[in-house]
Specification:
This protein has 102 residues and is α+β, with helices and mostly antiparallel strands. It contains three helices and three strands; from the N terminus they run ββαβαα. Its cofactor is a divalent metal cation.
Length: 102
């Protein structure tokens, strides 16, 4: 992905255990990667980080500087879209603030 862009999708599913209502959806973001050098890639792989994370990179770890830009739902890159989960909750007549103290 060096010097290129890719799109990361994260699937979400939510069920209200009282009513049985279910919502599902997908959130994502486009990620533009820097044109990193071969030596940077070798050092990054040697760090072990890409071997323990989905997609081989993190936007808050060692590879964060290799990301030029993220467009879209950037928290979805980390695995969870709070905006999408809030939409699901609202669809089920649950205000997001009701979930704060659970």
């Amino acid at each position: 992905m060096r010097g290129k862009s890719g799109y990361l999708h994260t699937g979400h599913w939510m069920k209200d255990l009282v009513t049985g209502q279910v919502r599902s959806g997908v959130a994502g973001a486009e990620i533009e990667f820097a044109n990193v050098s071969d030596s940077e890639i070798v050092a990054y792989v040697a760090s072990g980080e890409p071997l323990s994370v989905a997609g081989g990179f993190t936007h808050e770890g060692k590879s964060a500087a290799f990301i030029n830009r993220m467009t879209g739902d950037s928290p979805a890159v980390g695995g969870i879209s709070l905006a999408l989960l809030r939409k699901f909750a609202l669809d089920m007549s649950i205000e997001w603030t009701q979930l704060w103290d659970l």
